[in-house]
Amino acid sequence: MRPVYMISGGITKFKKAHPDKDFRLMVKQAFDYAMNDVPNLTLEMIDGSVASYFSDHFTRQLMAGIMVQDYLGLCPKPSKRIEGGGATGGLCFQAAWESIASGRMNVCVAYGFETMSRVNTWKGNEFIAHASDTNFDYPVGGFYTGYYAMMAQRHMHEFGTTVEQMALVSIKNHGNAQYNSYAQSPMKLTIEDVRSSAMVSTPLTMLDICAMSDGAAVAILASEDMAQKLSDNPVRITGIGSGTDAMRMADRPHGKVILLPHESEDDYKELKYPGVHSFRGGRMASKLAYDMAGINNPLEELDFVELHDAYTSSEIQTYEDMGLCKYGEGGGFIEEGYPFMPNIDYGINLNVKKRIPVNPSGGLLACGHPVGATGIMQAVFASWQLQGTIKKHLGNDELQLKNIKRGAIHSHAGTGTYITISILEKSS
Amino acid sequence: MQKKIKLQETEEGTILFNVDPIIIKHHYEIDYIHSYAQDSAFFAGLANKKLLGSKCTKCSYIFATPRSHCMECGAKTEWYELPKQGEVHTFTTCYFGSEAFLKETPFTLILVEFEGVNTLFLSRLVGVKPENVKIGMKIKAQFLRNSKFKSTDVYFVPA
C-alpha cells in the first residue's frame, strides 16, 4: 500500500435548512473551497471521486451522486457512491484512501452531503428509524433516540454513569462550537440547561441529541508524489480501521472484550461485552486503525479526536471503545476534564491533569449532522488542526490546538453497526 | 384552418411554501408488498400466543429475536419457544418519536432478557409509570387478541 495524504478540504455551513442551494450547489461550494486551498490542483489532475450520502428518502432523488459528479465537472472520471448509515462519511473517506493506497488513483475527491430539511423533523426520524430491522424493531416504535437512550440506561446501570456527566459533553461540544463559524448550534450551556430542556427519551433531553441539518463537505486525497507537488502542508493518513456489529441491538452477544495493547484481560473479568452499553464495532475499528498507525496507548499518543457524538451518551461510550479510558470509565473521563479544550471557558470548574480534546469543532451535537457530510467534515477539521490553519479557515484561532502531531476521526452508524476510525498526522 | 395543438390542462394547483427560492409540497406514498419470508413462523407464533426465538442446531446458541441462521457459527437454527416471563434488561420512555408513532407517545421501550437465552428482544412495556420502570424488573408477555401480524402483537406487562 502506498502512503496517502489529505491535501485539502472544504465545508459549507451546516444549517437546519439551505433552501437556496440544492445538494449539488452545496457540494460545489465546499469543493471550490477545497480547490482554492491547493491552487495548483486542476480538474484534469483529479482521477476520480467517491460520493457520500445516506438517504435517498431525504434527497428525494435516486443517483444523486452522479448529479454532483456532473455538476463538479468530473464526468467521465470514475466515481461511486458509498453508503453505511451514520458512518457513510467515514466509509467514503476510507474508500478514497483505498483508491490512492492501491495505486488506482493519484488524486481522489471524497464528497459528502445530505439535505435533511426536505421533510419535517419527525418524518426525518421515521426515515432514520428505517435503518433498524423493519420486521422486528421499527414497528415497535422505531426511534433512534429511543435506542440510544436504552444504551445510556444500561451504561448508567453497569458503570454508574450519570446524566450530569452526559450533560458535560453537551456543554463542551456546544461551547467549542462558539468559535466555529460553520457550526449549526453554538451555545454556552449549564448542566441545568441540558437537564431542563425537553425530555425526548429518558434519560436523553433535546440538548443530549444532535440536530438534523443540510450541509456538504469535501476532502481531497492524494498520493505522496501529488501531495508534494500540490501542497506544502499535506496531512498523512497513517491508520485506517473499521468494524461492524449486528443491525439489531437486541442481538449483541455477551463475550470477551477485544483488547487494545495497553489493556489486559484482568481489566474486564466481570464485564459482559459488548451488551448494549458498548460498541464492539468501534473497538474493532480502533484496534485496526491503531495497529496500522503504530499506536499502543491512544491517550498518550493521540493529541485530539473528532468523534461521532450523535448523543452525549454515545460520546462517553466511544471514549471507552477508542481506549481513551477503560470500559466503564467514560463518565469519569469527562468529569475529570480530559476531553475539554485547554483555553475555553466553559463556566465550570475543571481540575484537569491532562487533556486530549474531543470534538474541538463542536462535533455533531453542535455542528449538526447532515449525515453524508459529517464524517468528511471531521476529516476537514482534523486536517486544519494538523496543518495549523484553523485561524485561516474559521477566522479565529480559539480552537487551534498547539504542538500537536496526530489526531483521530471516528464515524459511526446505526446502533453501532458500521464504525470507522482514521488516524491523521502532520507530515512535516 | 389547421386545428391548434394544445395540451389539456387540469385545475389542480401546487402547494407553495415560498417563492424565493420556490419551495413546493411534493406528496409521496407507497404500499409495499412485504414478505416476512423465513421469519414468518415468528409472526404466526404471535397469533398463537407463542414467542418464538431461534436455537442453533450446531452450537446451541439461543437468539431471543429469531434468525434462521446462527450469527455465531453460520449453521441453521431451529425454532425455540421462549419463556413468557423475563426481565427488563434496559428501557426508555419516549416522549417524541418517528412521525408514525408520535400519536402513541409517551411509550416505553424495553429490551427483554430471558433466562437461558443469549440475546435480547425489543418490545414495549405497558402499565408501568415511566418513573417506576427498573432494570431487572420481572415482566411477562401479553398478546393482542386479534393478531395484526406485526412485532407489536406481543407486549410486556409487570409479572
In summary, what is this structure?
The complex is a heterodimer of chains A (428) and B (159). Chain A is α+β, with helices and mostly antiparallel strands and 428 residues long. Chain A is 37% helix and 17% strand.
Secondary structure elements and pairings:
The complex is a heterodimer of chains A (428) and B (159).
Chain A: E1 4-11, H1 23-37, E2 48-52, H2 56-59, H3 64-71, E3 79-82, H4 88-101, E4 107-115, H5 121-129, H6 138-141, H7 144-159, H8 163-177, H9 191-196, E5 199-201, E6 204-205, E7 214-223, H10 224-230, E8 235-244, E9 254-255, E10 273-274, H11 280-293, H12 298-301, E11 304-306, H13 312-321, H14 330-335, H15 363-367, H16 371-387, H17 390-394, E12 406-412, E13 418-426
Parallel strand pairs in A: 2-3, 2-4, 11-12
Antiparallel strand pairs in A: 1-7, 1-8, 4-7, 5-6, 8-13, 9-10, 12-13
Chain B: E1 16-19, E2 22-24, H1 40-47, E3 52-56, E4 62-63, E5 77-81, E6 85-94, E7 107-113, E8 121-125, E9 138-143, E10 154-158
Antiparallel strand pairs in B: 1-2, 3-4, 3-5, 6-7, 6-9, 7-8, 9-10
